[in-house]
Design brief:
about 375 residues, 14 strands, Yope Regulator, Chain: A, 2 domains, 11 helices
């Protein structure tokens, strides 16, 4: 890693160090950094940490470092090592993953609730998970039905570890390796975390290739149907926008998710199936100090005046995220058929297409102005 000196038009190499040299510890430091900032693992707001040092396995006192849920409702086992993975990290993670494979939805909710209670946050685990997955009904909450994932984080990966990981990847085991490297810049310590297996630019190709080979995957039929319908829904919304010569999501792949959007710098403009109604929004996934949200709030009166109904300004002080949203009125939502009904589907598509275009045209120029002010 190099530091760029604009004045001298030159670069200076930073001093790479080991965690041991800098007196950092695995549980006290690296584990805490990841628990507080899961987006360093390259998934934006797509990982929800639900437990640290989890030891709830029958007949064993073993502990896994971090346990998370992803947007596909899978459990994610995260193992952290400092300067060397050791020889047994893969075997250790495989054991933990096998233990976690039997956890039911209710058990996972309890595990997460225990974690929240330990932090004295006062939050409700089920509500948080429903919000994270953008689900409206408890009946749709089915966790851990797909194969689990593993993530390794370390400064150095031994050859026997990388060889085993590549073999597991080739046999359709979802596993990733991230290299964590600390650097010194004077008295300042910097951290770089980058994915090395599989390389990010080849990961989507590998996943797509594996998906084509899956013919015997067993899924809950109701959830599988919803996922297929969501992909179809987003494809039809994209087609409707294209028909209107609007190309907001042309490069965004339709996924089985209840939210769909495109990033504009640190903000995501999206369309969302909420728990009670549908909405369009500008979402900040990592705004813990509410700098982005508060900067936009300066223009609240101006923006509110551009819409038939008042915008929803959600600062979400107890979360890192914040959002500005425009929702379909509840009364209107109750008057249209279910989203899986053809009439209900088309009404939602038309509303999304119209309101997202209006929302984007009014909010994006303000967001662009705010971002320039913050960068100045």
């Amino acid at each position: 890693m190099y530091r760029i000196n604009r004045q001298e038009n030159n670069i200076t190499q930073l001093e790479e160090k080991s965690f041991a040299e800098l007196k950092f510890r695995e549980r006290e430091h690296l584990q805490e950094w990841i628990a507080k900032n899961p987006q360093v693992l390259g998934e934006d707001d797509d990982l929800l940490i639900i437990q640290k040092e989890f030891s709830g396995f029958n007949d064993t006192n073993e502990r896994l470092d971090l346990l998370a849920i992803d947007k596909e409702r899978r459990l994610v086992i995260i193992e952290n090592k400092l300067d060397d993975t050791g020889r047994d990290v893969v075997w250790q993670a495989l054991k933990y993953t096998s233990y976690c494979s039997t956890l039911s939805t209710s058990q996972i909710i309890k595990i997460y609730q225990d974690y929240l209670d330990q932090t004295s946050s006062g939050e409700d685990a089920k509500t948080n998970i429903l919000d994270f997955l953008s689900l409206e009904e408890d009946a749709e909450l089915l966790l851990n039905r797909n194969d689990q994932r593993m993530i390794f984080v370390a400064n150095n990966f031994r050859k026997e570890v990388t060889s085993t990981v590549l073999w597991l990847l080739n046999h359709d085991i979802q596993i990733q390796c991230f290299k964590a490297k600390p650097y010194l810049l004077g008295d300042e310590v910097l951290l770089q975390i980058e994915q090395i297996i599989p390389l990010p630019e080849t990961q989507e190709f590998m996943i797509d290739a594996k998906e084509k080979q899956k013919e015997d995957a067993v899924k809950s039929q109701a959830v599988a149907d919803s996922e297929a319908y969501l992909v179809q829904f987003w494809n039809e919304l994209k087609a409707e926008l294209k028909q209107r010569n609007l190309f907001y999501f042309v490069n965004v792949k339709s996924k089985p998710s209840y939210s769909f959007g495109t990033w504009k710098w640190e903000g995501k403009f999206g369309v969302v199936f909420g728990r009670y109604t549908i909405r369009v929004e500008l979402y900040f996934s990592n705004d813990p100090d509410k700098i982005l949200f508060d900067a936009m709030m300066q223009y609240q009166a101006e923006l509110d005046s551009k819409f038939e109904h008042q915008l929803g300004w959600q600062r979400l002080d107890d979360k890192k995220a914040s959002r500005i949203k425009y929702e379909m009125p509840i009364e209107k939502m109750k008057s249209i058929p279910d989203w899986k009904d053809e009439v209900g589907k088309q009404e939602r598509i038309q509303w999304f297409a119209t309101e997202f275009n209006h929302f984007y045209q009014e909010v994006y120029p303000v967001w662009e102005k705010v971002r320039k002010q913050l960068k100045a």
